[in-house]
Design goal:
The protein is mainly alpha-helical and about 70 residues long. It has a domain at about 25-70. It is about 70% helix and about 0% strand. The chain has helices spanning about 5-15, 30-65. The longest helix is centred in the C-terminal third of the chain and has 38 residues, at about 30-65. It is elongated, with a radius of gyration of 22 Å.
């Protein structure tokens, strides 16, 4: 099962039928472990992307200053 399929399966377990309040019934410890691993992976990717954005922003400012960006 791919990650996308796994996420879809967990989402279906958490999505009740209309008129029924949400419940975590049917979600297993393995599902929770999978979701926590995914959150950890996404946090790492987010940190990397944030650093890249900061570096690119600094580079853009350097280029503006090099070419008289205040005109």
């Amino acid at each position: 099962m791919t990650d996308a399929e796994r996420l879809e399966s967990i989402l279906k377990k958490l999505s009740p039928a209309p008129g029924i309040s949400p419940s975590a019934d049917g979600v297993t410890r393995d599902d929770i472990d999978f979701l926590l691993r995914r959150v950890g992976e996404l946090e790492k990717k987010n940190a990397v992307l944030s650093r890249h954005v900061m570096e690119l922003t600094e580079e853009m400012e350097n280029v503006r200053m090099d070419f008289g960006g205040n005109r």
